[in-house]
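cron nightly-structures :: item 1 of 1
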Amino acid sequence: MKKIILISLLSVLILSCKSNSATSTKLDSKSQVAIKGNWQIVSVNYPGSDVIKVTSFDLADSKCFIGSTWKFISNNNKGNLALTSPKCTAYSTPITWFINKEGQFVLKILDESKAKTIKSGYVLGVANQTENSFQLIDKINVAGKLTDVVYQFERLN
């Protein structure tokens, strides 16, 4: 009897300590379907943007993402992003993505790799979602203070 109680207590402790990471939560299908389609980043804003440079998604300067095009396919969580700014190096890559129930946008940049082999990605907040626009918000550390980088998306026709 004591063994059963001990095993039960250990099971409860193990299950209660389970990680609640962004990738282990349920999907927000409604938000995902609303983002389905072709989009363009029309602005990237953050405090001090005239003074500091931010490298977005470990790819390029954040200002290079203005004008970039993104394709989101909601039924298989795949897509593509393309940097097209004439001031920056052109770049295109497949992506995989989803939105979880906590309103977090989880993104993996595949860059000629399979999604299963990529162990890292990006978790951003989704805000102000409408039929024709939404924002992704990244948190960065600037001099020990968390700062929001806001990517404003607008739907392409």
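cron nightly-structures :: done
Residues 52 and 142 are 9 Å apart (CA to CA).
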